[in-house]
Structure formats: structure tokens, C-alpha cells
From TrEMBL:
Regions crossing the membrane: 25-46, 91-115, 158-177, 197-216
Localisation: Cell membrane
GO cellular component terms, semicolon-separated: plasma membrane
Protein name (Swiss-Prot/TrEMBL): Odorant receptor
tRNA-binding in keyword set: no
Length: 274
């Protein structure tokens, strides 16, 4: 779909719109991977120098810091078991972070691509009265609008369960981190600077990902509403036959279009702020 839409671009203005949307998606992807890179630094690089990010030790600690602490069926304090285990855990962490961010970034890429297509559609509707073959262009706009709505429905069906589990996951994490902050102040613990930065980066990472989902949903809602208002502002300037065709787009555009979390609640900035 994405390749097909890029091939069908008809002029420089439409191409510039798509490029701006693609650049916005690239900025978000870069920012997301930078945050994940900071996490990799604290989880992989610092433990390799003997600096652990864990605050509480237990009986499973082997004595030498690992990226992920667990129970080992072999002695990891000896070489080369320690090095091999450390490298394998580092690879697992990197793959997990790339997979986690990759799904989110792909969602952002799809949403911004659709928003670019909706921008182009809005411009065509706005300039409809300036075209000689307005009837043909209007039919093309209606067809394209229905196609984009079907794509949004596919994205919604694909991501709604994922978003629901992520929001539940975020709620649980925020509860634990809130408890951790309270205990730090109550106990008067002297937390090191590296631990403080790691703790803050983790909270910012969770907060940013949750904000990203809601921002994408809000952008999609706003862009779909622009199509409705663009069609609404033109219906009285057209003849009766074109108005009937435009009515199809207006009726469909009046229905709210948004991403949901498990089809329970919409993923918008209002949800994020509530």
C-alpha cells in the first residue's frame, strides 16, 4: 500500500506532504531508538564494568553483575561461562528492545502515512471547485477515502488487543514505580547518580511510549475530521449531482475514526491525560 501510494503521487505538492509526514515518523523512530539505546547502556555497558543497576541483592546473585539477574544451573562466576552468559543476555536484550520499539514504530509509520494521504485528499476536496473535471475527481476522492478508512480498520483490528495489554502493562509499571519513589523518600535511601538516571530514563521511556500511542490516535482523529470539514465547506457550491456524491463522503466522515485499546476506550490524548 505504501509503495503504491508513493507511486501514484501526481505533483510536487503532494510529494512534499508525504515527505513531511515521513520525516515526522523518522524523528519519532529515531527518538524511540535513542531511548532504547540509553536503556541498553545501563543494562549492558555498565554491568560489563562491574556497575549493577539493581538496588536489592538476593540469594540468586552470582557475585558478578549480569544484565538480567536470574537463577543459573551452572556456575557463572567462572570463565568462559560468565562471558558467554553475559553476551547471550545482551543479545536477548537488544533483540527484545528492537522488537518492542519496532512494533510501535511501524504503527507510527502507518499512521503518518495515512495522515499524509488524508492531507492530500483534503487538498483535493478544498480545490475541487477549481478543477474542470470535478465530478471525476470527486469520485476518485470518495474511492480513496473509503480505501483509507478500510486501512484504518485493519490497523485498528491488528493493534487494539496489543494496545489494551500495553496500557494494562503501563498501569502496573507506573504503580510499582510510584511505590518505589515513595519508599525512596520514606526510607531516606542514598541512591547513586547512575541509578537515578537509569530510574528516570525508564520512567521517561514508559511515559513516552504511552504518550506516543495516544498522540498517534489523536493525530488520526484530527486528520479524519479535517476531511469531513473540507467536504462540508464545499457542498453548497456544487450542483445537485455532485452534492449527492459528496453526501456519501460527509456521512462516512461524520463517524468518529480512532484507534482503541481492545475496543474498550479510544486511544487519544484525552485518554492519556485522564
Amino acid at each position: 500500500m505504501i509503495v503504491e501510494d508513493w507511486v501514484k503521487l501526481k505533483n510536487a505538492e503532494e510529494r512534499n506532504i508525504m515527505i513531511r509526514r515521513a520525516q515526522s515518523a523518522r524523528i519519532i523512530i529515531t527518538f524511540a531508538y535513542c531511548i532504547m539505546g540509553i536503556g541498553c547502556f545501563f543494562l549492558i555497558v555498565l554491568p560489563s564494568f562491574g556497575i549493577s543497576m539493581r538496588d536489592t541483592t538476593n540469594i540468586t546473585d552470582p557475585g558478578r553483575p549480569m544484565p538480567l539477574q536470574t537463577y543459573y544451573i551452572y556456575d557463572v562466576t567462572k570463565s568462559p561461562q560468565y562471558e558467554l552468559t553475559f553476551i547471550s543476555q545482551s543479545i536477548y536484550i537488544i533483540i527484545a528492545m528492537m522488537s518492542y520499539s519496532g512494533i510501535d514504530n511501524f504503527l507510527g509509520l502507518l499512521v503518518f502515512h495515512i495522515c499524509g494521504q488524508l492531507d492530500i485528499l483534503k487538498n483535493r476536496l478544498t480545490n475541487l471547485d477549481k478543477c474542470k473535471n470535478s465530478h471525476k475527481i470527486l469520485n476518485s476522492c470518495i474511492t480513496r477515502h473509503r480505501r483509507l478508512l478500510r486501512v484504518i480498520d485493519i490497523i485498528e483490528d491488528t493493534y487494539n488487543v496489543i494496545l489494551l495489554f500495553l496500557f494494562v502493562y503501563f498501569a502496573i509499571l507506573f504503580a510499582f514505580y510510584g511505590f518505589r519513589i515513595i519508599t525512596l523518600f520514606d526510607e531516606g535511601n542514598n541512591i547513586s547518580f547512575s541509578h537515578l538516571v537509569y530510574f528516570a530514563s525508564t520512567v521517561i521511556n514508559i511515559f513516552a511510549h504511552m504518550c506516543l500511542y495516544c498522540a498517534l490516535g489523536e493525530i488520526l482523529v484530527a486528520q479524519c475530521n479535517k476531511i469531513y470539514y473540507a467536504a462540508y465547506s464545499k457542498w453548497y457550491t456544487m450542483n445537485s449531482k455532485e452534492t449527492q456524491n459528496l453526501l456519501i463522503l460527509m456521512i462516512r466522515g461524520s463517524k468518529p475514526v480512532y484507534l482503541t485499546a481492545g475496543k474498550v476506550f479510544p486511544v487519544t490524548m484525552a485518554t492519556f491525560c485522564s
